[in-house]
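Hey, can you fold this?
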Amino acid sequence: MANKMVLASIGAGLAATLLSGSPALAAHGAPSQGQDSGRAQILVERAPDCVVGWVNRGTITQTGYAQNQCGYAMRLKVIWARGADGTCFWVEDQRTISSKVAKEPRRFDGVGLC
């Protein structure tokens, strides 16, 4: 019975933290980067440093890219602020994925694991 109460308390605390607009915590407990929009933020584990991410901005759209340079395959997605993230892909070593969105109001926030 005590275990259920502890879990309920932890769950309620996490929900309150997310709904309060506090910065989300990354996989290793560090605060996430970016602006606090006052809304609940979804936790995303960032890709390792051997994954390279970049964005090309056009007049109307922008395309985010992620290249796996880790020596092994993994599931990756492009992370966008102010909207849905890109599709999750299984990415082999030395392969690149992309995700295209409208230029405004979106912002490239890097690459995440999924």
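Oh, and this one too while you're at it.
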Amino acid sequence: MEIVIAAIAAACYFYGYYRLAFWLIAVALFFTLLVLVKSISCPAWYFQRRAKAGLAEGKGFGALLAIKMAILAMLSLGMMRLAEPAGYEPIRNQIASFCPDKTQGLFKNCATWIRMSQKRP
């Protein structure tokens, strides 16, 4: 289902409807998280869904986790990419607000700052 929503969002992006594409990706991300949490909290539900689809009963939970994590990563990257054209403040600036140094090498400086703040005397 989330792949279909992401495909519709890609079409919206292609035609210039950036805000709609952004929110469709947000819905797909939420749906992916919902299915992942439901599957982890209630494995019987997941296995019933597999049985209903005609798939082997005892297999596939690890594959589900791997696939959903990959989908989450792709949707998150898509949201980050769509934030700026959609008119929202770039997520990079919000991440930068957590670090004291807001220069060009944001991730490098942020990682250095985090490592230095965790060192103990």
